[in-house]
Structures are given as structure tokens and as C-alpha cells.
Amino acid sequence: MFPPIPNPSVSPEAAKPRFGEKDILRRSASEVTPPAERLTEVAKLIDVSKCIGCKACQSACLEWNNLHEEIGFNHGVYTNPMDLTPDTFTLMRFTEWVNPETDNLEWLIRKDGCMHCEDPGCLKACPSPGAIVQYSNGIVDFQHENCIGCGYCIKGCPFNIPRISKVDHTAYKCTLCSDRVAVGQGPACQKACPTQAIVFGTKQEMKDWADFRIKDLKSRGFENAGLYDPQGVGGTHVMYVLHHADQPSIYANLPDNPRISPIVDAWKGVTKYVGLAAMGFAAAAGLLHYVVAGPNRVTAEDEENAQKLTEGKGPPSAPPPASPSGPAGHEGRAT
Amino acid sequence: MTSVNLPPEVPEDIEPGDAVRPGRPVHVARYTLAARINHWITAISLVVLALSGMALFTPRLFFLTGLFGGGQWTRTLHPWIGVVLFCSFAILFVRFWRANLPARVDVTWLAHANDLLAGREEKMPEVGKYNAGQKGVFWAMSALIIVLIVSGIAMWDQYFYDLTTIPQKRVAILVHAMAAVVIICVWIIHVYAAIWVKGTIGAMTRGEVTGGWAWRHHRKWLRELVSRKPRAPAE
What we know:
A: alpha+beta; 2 domains; 3-stranded antiparallel beta sheet; B: 235 residues; mainly alpha; 4% strand
């Protein structure tokens, strides 16, 4: 058993937040100087093999975050609601999978929610300064007062996590209970889990605990058991122990190889610089041309010619003598 | 006699309201009041869209959201103004598309584009109501506005979230950004041309240009208007 996190002390000293503004590693649409010293990275480890699907974590999340999910419909499966919503930051996804090797039905239950990527796609895509921050302990948090509700985070996220509220038009997702972690507690879901399928600690502790669990699973015949800490996003601060780590996608489409989409990279990277350069170039070229060539003015002669033409006297060169296009200039009709 | 005097088919680049008003100087009506109002609604929409779009395009210009009452308002308004632009431009398109059809002279005109830029306009062929550059702006705007409205709807999550998948939204957002960059460049060319060619802006404010301006820049159009005039009463 993983040693549980002790209950909070009642001393005022323990109530002081252990991280905050000064520990911001990344801030959306802003340049920040990373803190000189990085906090110890934290992580939540979800051991899928120990999950009994009780949804205590889902309830605890609603309760701690004071969320009120709409009463929905039973679709004949245990997953409820059917997807993450602005009020459901975490969701038990149930998959019935037939193992082709054993022909056994396996009930795969994965607690879905924000993975708290080391390289967060949401933060990269966000256009609003300070709407998404990453603390040096690895927690990625949304700051609702800065959120403009554009939904760019949804496009940036490789895991399809953020949801925009129809009530206040800002984006919501799991905070990793940053408010609890700040005072030395574990996330609400971890606290509520009756089987220690969810444990919380430093990232190193979680990796060590995962190793222990994976060895145990392998000894029980799950030879592909392994840790899901995808390097495509620099690792995550929510990790899974999977009994079939060779095929994450069987767990309700957990991405096999998540990374920030190259399209998002192109949009937030090269397009921005080339785009601004192109617009700047167009404006500068115009200015330069004006300075060098000067304005194109109508001359008195032009006015005279127009007068002669309208008065029927015929200007000096009535039919264009040297017109290279010939007399049939205006043809070319498409109809 | 009648067969000779039959009015020829109206050249396709003459638009309703185009007319020569003899005098000193000659005035030529180029845009009707309706066309001008239509143009300026489109123009204002485009500028507002560019400002609000650039605010969300790069963090360095995020301060532009202040013009619209903050980020939330910018995010809310931008797509609606896009709808205004699309509708307004659609009407403009119906007005102007015929006169913007490609003509053979456009090729010659484009081949002499460097003469134009160097100020040797006398070497340019005579063109109708629109030269190849203006036609290029018109068709580029038309195509880009379609790309922008389609990609814009794909990323208008408030109403159309379920219409597209997330991978499709990513493509839409990239296409939207690139098309926006191009349309802003086209807009810069359009505005610069109006500033550089003196006497042009009056066409879209008062609706008319001087005869000299028409002679210098759109001589074929002026000839068509002049030659059309006496035939009108004969009908």
C-alpha cells in the first residue's frame, strides 16, 4: 500500500500556499522568466488495473469543485455523462474489450481528465495572456478571469480535455486540485479513491510506485503492463499504469502517441512570423514606392483630352494606334 | 438606317449609373450611392475584422481587444462582423462581377505592370472600367472571403462546435489565419493603389471622378461611355 497523505495540520503555518505567482513556469501568450528554482514536480498516478469503477473520484471532483452536472440520460453503459463537460472535469470511461489472445472479456475503466502535460498544447494555443499558466511543480491551470472563451485550447490539446461553459463562456478542466496541492493535500479524487487506484506524490515517487505495480502485474501474467507517461508531450503529471501499455488506444481512445498537432505548431509558429512579415512587407513596399515613384497624378493634358473627347472634337490619338492588344479589347466574356 | 443606329450591346464593363457629365472639367459618375454605401459597410467590416482578428492572432497585438471591450467581447463580435462582411460583399459581388470578368487586354496590362509602377502610364494599354490589378483584388477578395467564412464557421464553437471534429478545426484555424494574412495584404495593395493614384478616392466618396482621371486610367471605359451617350436618345 502506498502511504496515504496525512490529514492537514491545523496550524496556520500549514495553511500558507506552497506555490503561486512566483512559481509560474509558463504563462499563455506571455513571456515569463522561469523561476530560478523549480518546485519538486508532482504527479497523480492512476492505476487502471486497481480501479473498480465506483466513480468515487468523479463524485469527489464534483463536490470539491462545487460543480453541478446536469442530470442526463442512461445510455445503457456505465459511462455517465457520456463525455467530459464544463462541469465534469474527470470521467470514468468504461470499455468492454475482448482480448484476442485469451478471448476473455476485459472491462477497462479509465479515469479521463487533464493530463497536465509538461509541454501543454492548450497553453501554446491560448491567445489570451495569463488565461493558462503552468506552475513549476507541473500543474497546468486555467485562470478564468483571463479566459476569453475562444476555444483555442481545445484545438491545442492532444487529449481532447478542455470544455467551454455555455454559462460564463470560459474553458474548464481538471485543476489537479491546485488549491489542495498548494496546502500539502492530494487531489480530491485521490483522497476519495477506496482502492488506491489513484495515488499522488512527487513525480519520482509516482514513477517508483508505478514500477512496483508494473512488476506485480507482470508477475500475474500481464506481460505488457507499463507506465503511460507520453514523451511526445514531454511527459505528463497525470500518469497511468496500464495492463496493456502496448496499446493505450483500447482504453477509450487514449492516444497511443500524443503530441501537439503539427498543424497547431505551424499555426502558432511559422504562420505568425511569416504572416506578420508579409503584412509588414506589403505596407513597407507601398510606402517605399510612394517615396521613390511619387503619386500618380492626373495632368492638365489628361483633362483636356477628356474634354475634347466628350465634346466630340476627338482627342489627338482617338483610336489607340499602337495598342498592343488590338481593337477588340473588351472581349473575353465568360458567358 | 435603323439597323445602323441600333444601340450596340452595352459593354460588360459599364455598370449601372456610369455616365459622363460634360463640362470643364468633365465629370464621370463611377459609383452609385448604393454601391458606395455597400462598399463602405464592407470596408469598415474588413478593418474591424482585421483588428479583432490580429488581436487573437498574436499576443503582441492582444491589446487591440481593448478597442472592442476586452477579450470576451472581441471573441463574441469577430464572427458576427464576419457575417456582416460576407453578406455585404456578396451584394458587392453581384454588382461588380461582370465588369471584372477577365479580358484579353488584362494580359497586356499585366505585362506592362512595371511601366505603371515606374510612372510610365502612357505605355499601358487602354483599359475598361477595371484594370487587371483591380480585377485581381476583386477576385482575390471574393475567393478569400469564401475561404474565411467557411473556415470561420468551422471554428465558431459557440454555435457550430458539433459541425466539425477537432482535427478539422485545427486545419480550419490554420487556413483562417493564412487566408486572413493574404486578405490583409490584398487590402493593403487596394488601399495603397487608391492613395497612390490621385483622384481615385472621390470615386468611392462622391461617386465620381474627373474626365482626366478616366482618360488617364480607364480610357476604354471613358470612350465607351462617350460613344454610348448620343445613342441613348435615338432609341
